[in-house]
Design goal:
α1 runs parallel beside α7, α6 crosses α7 and α9 crosses α10. This protein has ten helices and eleven strands. It is globular. The protein is about 35% helix and about 20% strand. Strands 1, 2, 3, 4, 5, 6, 7, 8, 9, 10 and 11 form an eleven-stranded mixed beta sheet that branches. With about 425 residues, it is of the alpha+beta class.
Length: about 425
Amino acid sequence: MLNNIKCGEKELSKALYSSCERNIEGQHLLCIQDTTDIDYFSHKERIKAADANLGRITNTTFGYLCHPMLVIDADKNMPIGFCSVKLWNREWEKPIKAPKEYKKFPIEQKESFRWISSVTESRKNLPKETMITVIADRESDVYEALCSIPGENTHLLIRSSSNRLICQDDMFLLDKMQSCDIEHTYDIEIKGNKSRKSRTARIDLRYTTVDIKRSSLTIGDYPGSVKMNCIYVLERPETVPVGEDPIEWRLYTTHQVSTVEQAMQCVQWYRARWFIEELFRILKSDGLDIESSQLETGLALKKLMLFCLQAALQIMIIKIAYDQKREDCSAQIVFTDKQILFMKILQPTLEGKTEKQKNPFLKSSLAWAAWIIAKLGKWGGYTSQGPPGYITMKNGLDIFYIKSDAFLLAYEAMRDVYKE
């Protein structure tokens, strides 16, 4: 199927979007977009160099790029699907560094146009009445995007990368934000990783409205300035570990920001960008390891990505549901009614005799389903063991789908016998 030209990316993408639409309940969606490169350089001897569906990324990598738009229910802060996916590759002969004249190209001829085109595609695939907030990191700080993305029921919330010139007092953005009064100070818990230490960070919050001046390099029919509300988040020096940079965000948004509560809500929405980073992590390492695929054509590898996006999403949702004890979300986000019926039959076989070994969550909730999947993935079930990880959830889903398929076959067969 992956090499069958009759089953293309367009058809597979439509299935992704339909799955997302079925999960939409709220009227406000966070649409998070980002790009990741999929590298198959380690398979260079197996993949034909002339494959038109792959291309050079750097001097030591080749493959393709993936730019999904991940949809989050803003009220429940839970991923529910995808409303746009763009897969593309550069030509083999294309130079690694862009030519000098590249900056003079119109946005439609640049790869950065994806930040705009993905929103256009998303609006086609989402109900018109839903309000969306488009969220992206610093790479999306493109003047054309600031002008083009906002519209009816469409808001923007992105992190600034450029210290842009603004109309107010002919200042630069950073100078303007630093001159604003601190409106609120709060503490957040920072989870450590390879590049930073765990800590409680003390954050100062500032916000104001700015008019961003058009860049001299902007080509096309765009206004001389664009109005944005800007939120400035900066960690105080006393909580920054030695050798680390402070937390510092400058966020542009078209949402109204006239109170501390509104500013904090935007900061909270932007923090949901973590979901797409986790998605890429599951795709590449913790679970699916898509870059180790043994497929030999770019066409098949790209179609495999569309399957893997849905699989990675399910793994992530299940993991979040268990970690956050999400009894407020229905298992129907991931599973069909018949699969949930099978879970109810399967649950007693996974439980122990004591209360600590039983499923503690509300039946048919997402947390309840996550407990069952984790147990199938060989998680012991004791809180002292810590929560199940991504690989455990992935293994549990693999086993569940095998068992549920067998159950559904038997279910249909027994129903036919009963009719006779």
